[in-house]
Specification:
Layout lengths: L1 H15 L6 H6 L3 E2 L9 E3 L9 E4 L2 E4 L13 E3 L6 E9 L4 E8 L14 E5 L37 E8 L4 E6 L2 E6 L4 H8 L19 E4 L6 E10 L1
Antiparallel strand pairs: 1-13, 2-5, 3-4, 4-13, 5-12, 6-9, 6-13, 7-8, 7-12, 9-10, 10-11
Length: 241
């Protein structure tokens, strides 16, 4: 009988003050979808309004198809309507054979900013097997690389035509950035300071005229690149840190 009453009291106390959800459940509820699978709501063309049908949203997949490019129209990089500072971005991507594309962050817009990569660093998306950019040493242009700055520690990319998963972490408070490709941490980098400045100085972004504001903004837009090759994205989501 004593055991019964102790159990009853414990149950009542739990109902009054239940335990908080586990960490994994709490984290999962923080993710915000950036793509509803049916429309391009929340996105727009870099430095322009609206989106041309070169980008399509069907059955949960966002696809850039260069065969649909309007004649004489060559600027179709997408950027989010919202700005982000500290975050984790989770994206699945599927590149065409020989394809090349990228994901930007910290992107700024304006009359004097011609391209997303004028300000926003890029995570490379590439067909490592067929695209010549993956054959250089060091492999600063291989899939998952911090483009032209930090090479991946290993090649864990699935072949063209198969889905890959990128987890990009940007935390300015800790001065830490990282890339996980298909569940493996392959790139880590600072976001400011002497090490970052040295990386930029030894890259194509060391031109003060064209890239004077490259990587200097803590807050900016997420971007998807028009590099002229077909690529698809799905399950695009973000959570603020």
């Amino acid at each position: 009988m004593k055991t019964f009453f102790l159990t009853l009291i414990t149950l009542v106390l739990f109902l009054i003050n239940p335990s908080p959800p586990t960490k994994s459940v709490a984290v999962e509820t923080e993710w915000e979808s950036l793509f509803d699978g049916k429309t391009l709501n929340g996105w727009h063309r870099f430095n322009r309004k609206g989106i041309k049908p070169i980008w399509t949203a069907k059955k949960g997949v966002l696809t850039f198809d260069p065969s649909l490019r309007p004649k004489g129209d060559f600027v179709h990089d997408l950027v989010t309507d919202k700005n982000y500072t500290n975050f984790q971005l989770s994206v699945e991507w599927n590149i065409s054979e020989g394809g090349n594309s990228g994901i930007f962050w910290g992107v700024q817009e304006g009359e004097n900013i011609p391209k997303p990569y004028s300000t926003g660093p890029e995570i490379q998306l590439l067909d490592n097997e067929r695209h010549p950019d993956a054959k250089f040493n060091p492999n600063f242009h291989q899939a998952g690389a911090l483009y032209d700055l930090v090479e991946p520690s290993k090649d864990v990319c699935n072949p063209a035509g198969e889905w890959n998963h990128i987890l990009l972490t940007i935390d300015h408070d800790k001065n830490q950035g990282s890339v996980d490709l298909n569940g493996t941490r392959i790139v880590e980098f600072p976001l400011s300071g002497p090490v970052w400045e040295n990386l930029v100085a030894n890259s194509k972004f060391n031109n003060d005229c064209d890239f004077k504001d490259f990587g200097k903004f803590k807050t900016g837009k997420i971007g998807l690149q028009d590099h002229g090759d077909k690529i698809s994205f799905r399950n695009i989501k973000i959570r603020k840190l």
